[in-house]
Specification:
The structure is a single chain. The protein is of the alpha/beta class and 417 residues long. Helices cover 29% and strands 21% of the residues. It has twelve helices and 18 strands. The strands form three sheets. Strands 1, 2, 3, 4, 5, 16, 17 and 18 form an eight-stranded mixed beta sheet that branches. A six-stranded mixed beta sheet has the order 8-11-12-13-14-15, sandwiched between helices. Strands 6-7-9-10 form a four-stranded mixed beta sheet, covered by helices on one side. It is globular and about 70 Å long.
């Protein structure tokens, strides 16, 4: 078969896949499959999908007659990626306040602020990032007027239900910005957090008498529920000294700690590993952005991984969460093993966030996967097809529609077809 004919057959398969009914049973055949659960990829493997889940993965599998066959010879198949810190459904236009529900700027709620109540599943940011392999995400509050920013949610970028789980984690921040909110000192931030957690552990609505600057009963009830939930505490913190304080705080209250950012996390990597903490890294932090990030370095992820710390990723910009895989590729360029980068985008992220049944391509797991035309961590690679919950996603977005509309500039202004 000629190269041109093979390309046409593959494209026809993908077009047919998109047109197939949502409940179709699928067979992806001939790909290099990274299950992530296995150390090495499966060459020329077949992935069978039924009822939205992976049925079988392996080589020399027979494809049942009723399955829709997709020829993926020469392609790479991986699980869909997980963005570990975003504002999907909470923000549309950065400069337009009416489209931004990610942070409280005036009326503090603290730990009771639940972003799941404001999610917009019709956001145009969903499709454009899904097209580049992002299947699920944590959507979280931004730092606002309190050191405890509020409760995050896990979401799916598929075409089904958007909200997967509310109150996935409690987010907060320690550093210069939170110090200003607490009176000007980081010491006051830590004392406020410790006092709040101590009081929440013994909180009784009928006995609680909040003083000036204390959390309301509503906040304290939310904080107590969080302490009982087993969900992680996510603290945006950069400086090594504050990371040590965060480790101590989480340990004292039996909390799972996730560090967001952690520009200087490499300096306390052994302590993070001993505490079982995870770090959401920004791999493009190569120069100090402030006095808190003087120790920023490009091999942060590699050093953390080598020490045994769970490393997951964020693009740190919801509009361009599609760059997540390329930023993970940057970490590979500075020493992180390729397999560890893929793991941090998939299986490891699912474990950190408690997302059951996703992040691997193993029998019984959800069929969230991507067919790539090459190495997914390379700039020149793109996703040929994204499948979420066993459904082929439309490979179009607002950007592609605008491109199609205006690709022919000879058409009159306002032409809509």
């Amino acid at each position: 078969m000629s190269v041109l004919r093979a390309a046409k057959v593959a494209m026809a398969s993908l077009v047919w896949l998109f047109m197939a009914p949502a409940w179709a049973e699928l067979a992806i055949v001939g790909a290099r499959v990274y299950t992530v659960a296995e150390p090495e990829p499966l060459e020329g493997a077949t992935v069978l999908i039924a009822n939205g889940r992976i049925e079988q993965v392996g080589m020399d599998l027979s494809v049942p007659f009723e399955y829709r066959r997709i020829d993926a010879e020469g392609k790479i198949v991986t699980p869909a990626f997980i963005e570990s810190y975003s504002h999907f459904g909470l923000i549309e236009i950065e400069a337009e306040a009416t489209t931004n529900d990610a942070a409280l700027l005036e009326h503090p709620l603290g730990p009771a602020f639940d972003v799941s109540l404001a999610l917009n599943p019709a956001s145009t940011l969903i499709a454009v990032n899904r097209m580049d392999g992002v299947g699920r995400a944590i959507t979280a509050p931004r730092p606002g007027v309190d050191p405890l920013a509020g409760l995050a949610a896990s979401v799916s970028l598929g075409t089904g239900a958007f909200l997967l789980e509310p109150k996935t984690a409690l987010f907060g921040h320690i550093g210069a910005a939170s110090a200003e909110l607490a009176g000007g000192s980081r010491a006051a931030v830590m004392q406020r957090l410790r006092r709040a957690l101590d009081e929440a552990a013994r909180f009784s609505p009928s006995r609680y008498r909040p003083g000036p600057g204390d959390y309301s009963r509503h906040d304290m009830a939310a904080l107590k529920a969080f302490l009982r939930s087993g969900k992680p505490l996510v603290l945006a913190v950069e400086r090594a000294a504050e990371i040590q304080q965060a480790i101590s705080l989480a340990d004292d209250h039996g909390l799972r700690l996730i560090v967001l950012g952690g520009a200087e996390a490499w300096r306390v990597r052994d302590a993070l590993a001993a505490a079982g903490a995870a770090v959401i890294v920004r791999t493009h932090d190569n120069l100090p952005r402030s006095f808190e990030t003087l120790g920023a370095r490009l091999d942060n992820a590699a050093l953390l991984h080598e020490a045994g710390v769970d490393v997951v990723f964020t693009a740190a910009e919801t509009h361009n969460a599609r760059n997540l895989r390329q930023l993970a590729g940057n970490a590979v360029a500075y020493g992180l093993p390729w397999s560890a980068a893929l793991d941090g985008l998939t299986r490891r992220a699912a474990q950190v966030w408690g997302m059951d049944g996703v992040g691997t391509l193993t029998p019984g797991s959800r069929a969230d996967l991507v067919i790539w035309n090459g190495d997914p961590l390379e700039l020149t690679t793109w996703a040929e097809q994204v499948i979420i919950d066993g459904q082929a996603m439309p490979m179009r977005s607002r950007q592609t529609l605008l491109f199609e509309r205006y690709r022919d500039l000879s058409k009159p202004y306002g032409y809509s077809r």
